[in-house]
Amino acid sequence: MFYVYVLQSTIRDQAYVGFTTDPKNRLKEHNQGLNPSTKPYRPWSLIYYEACLNENDAKHREVYLKTTQGRRLLNRRLRDYRYQVKV
């Protein structure tokens, strides 16, 4: 299985979308600062993921979620989560 995931920085209003075969290990890598693009916004928490049967589907979904339309979809899906965090 391949997973598309969304991380939320716990110190800033910053989100990150990626894909992997092992979400738990990937989250550890982000929090250890092994990814230069996410290092300044540590620590991260996993707030959303989707499972895909093959790598190509996961890559396409990741690219879509990084578009404006994909961000809107994520905001709608995570509306309750984001409301709880801000209150």
UniProtKB/TrEMBL annotation:
Q: Which InterPro entries match?
A: GIY-YIG_endonuc (IPR000305), GIY-YIG_endonuc_sf (IPR035901)
Domain GIY-YIG span(s) in chain numbering: 1-76
Q: Matching Gene3D superfamilies, A to Z?
A: GIY-YIG endonuclease
The family database entries (Pfam families) matched by this protein are listed as:
GIY-YIG (PF01541)
SMART domains xrefs: GIYc (SM00465)
This protein's source sits in the domain of life called: Bacteria
The entry's protein name is GIY-YIG domain-containing protein
